[in-house]
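Q: Sequence in, structure out?
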Amino acid sequence: QNHVFEGSIGIVQDRVLMTDPSGRLESFLRAKLTGNAFDFCGMQPLIGRYFTQEDAKPGAPPVFVLSYKVWQSGFAGARNIIGNNYILNGIPTTLIGIMPKRFTLWGADLWMPFTPNPAEADANSDFVFLMGRLKPGLTPKAAAPDLNIIAHRLAKQYHVFYPKQFDVRVPLLIDNVVGKFRETLYILLGAVGLLLLIACANVANLLLARATAREKEFAVRSSLGAGRWRVMRQLLIESSLLAWCGAALGCAFAAAGLKALTVALPKFTFPDEADIRLNLPVLGATVVVAVLTPLIFGLIPSLGAFARNLAEPLKAGGRGNSGFRRGKMRNALVVFEVGLSLFLLSGAGLLMRSFLVQRGADLGFRADKLLVAQVQLGKKYPTAESQYRFARDLTDKLRAVPGVTSAATALEFPPFGGIRSTFDVAGISHSEKWNGQAGLVDPRYFETVGTHILSGRSITEADMFGKHMVAVVNQTFVTKLMKGENPVGKRVRIDIFEQAPVPIKNPWFEIVGITSDLRNSGLVDPTVPEAYTPMTLSGYGGFGIFVKTVGSPAAMGKTLESSILSLDKNVVPQQSGTMTQLLDQFLFSPTRFGVQLFSVFASIGFVLVCVGVYSVISYTVSQQQKEIGIRMALGASTGNVRGLVIRAGMRFVIVGILIGALLSFLLLRVMQNQIAGIKTYDPVTLISVVAILLLAGYGASYVPSRRATLVDPLVSLRYE
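A: Exactly. Output:
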């Protein structure tokens, strides 16, 4: 019916139990695809064939296609398994193909054909994801109205599958895949650019020092008739060779580093289909940088290589032209490096502090003692009551396991919370909309996750099937909506239940208790008001399982899976693992990766700055042996000489810190979305970075200062 897509596919995701010919039972993540899915994706199978529209027709023999990962890990890469029958959820199914390594559509372990049939679908558990390819020239914003009209037309025909109020949005796949990590990539790209500038400034400083040391040579050439352009051309060729060799070496390091980088990438940060390698655009950018770098940074020393007075460089020794108060260009480059380094180190410090704040955030529960999983119940459990009975039997079985102190089920998953809803409280008027969340829980949920009832009572077993609808609200509900007034005994309206799979008319609940807060909006956003109700009120067809253990919850993983399968072999746990593992995988890993990579760039920049300060001071000392010798001959102590050198080095560092602090104040605002829990202008971070740079500057200046004190005045004056 649509006029915006060239093609579209439907995807249903669940888990499936496979029994191989040897009788081994294993759970896999399955994606059921419409018959045109593989043609839509344009990916050919590695072995065998993929299924087509014919395989998706009713009555067609059941077939499936296996992922490369499972083929290697579960079947040792055997090629003779094509055509074998495997039992999937009790149905003999033929393996017809293996997909290439890069194909991991929807993160599935295997794919099966799927034909949408509204007459057989379960509104509580069958969720179809749609993916389409927009026609040329169309944007997602332009496509949304057409799809919105179609969806509302279908909602009238299949009203059980649609909420009463909804709107259609058309996000791009790349936005869903990359998400907020795109901002991290842009920040990392900026860090790379700053690192390149520091490296270029360092190289320019070294070239400038080399050009200064060759002033006598250039003076002789000029005296013999060599033009400025000829000498400049020679210096540019030398710097170009340096840049091209560096670019070639950098590409070699990048090719090797990308392999390690792809392994270190957090799971779900990028799709496995993403081909991360040195492609033509990257190589082209490298060529551009290799061409521009010598032109810009090699031109600086070549322009400074010509003395206005040709006689001075031709004097014996040729030294004395680069004192502590001269060589302004080299000094400016060092100041520039220090400023950029302070910005990089400040960014790395802020990201690190933000990450540590998030890791140490009070979740409202102990994640290290919780084992969690999700299950999706099928048509065998059509009502909320049948779903709860399964959940209750499961938690009873789990509580009987040694080492388990409590078990519960809920249709909410901290720190992500429950279902979005709006609230009203009887007798209280308000002009703004009261937004929050609704969580459906069983009687032992609060005990299991570790929250405390602050007032009133918890949800009980009698509430699960009672006619009197009750709710427990969190502390944020009280402070934000009730302005601190005790709401126990009042009635709250939870609007989302009007649009539930089993709608509730006039969803008013009596508030019977107040519980302490759980994080329900992630680790960055503040906790929102939430109302908890018995999970039997509406049959969403799935729920989360929470198991509290005495020891390590990871050891109970197999017990949880076997307990579920003992009740129903067709119900397979999803996203099973410890709460700590899931938090690390979905919340902490991408942030940690960005922090680590940014810190590497900042560390390299810091090392380059230390080298830059050291090289400039060391070179200046070597060029000023005559001045130092005269000072010592006139009675200057070693302390005076050392202080002179250290002050010169620290002057660069201090000016660079001031400039870098101003730069950080202006530019760190672009990192605001990546920093949570602390201010962008965090004084602890800034003071720490300044202290590190001051110590580094002192250390980089101290070594040349010691060398300066070893100058013998007689020897120095004799050579000069």
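The longest helix spans residues 579-623.
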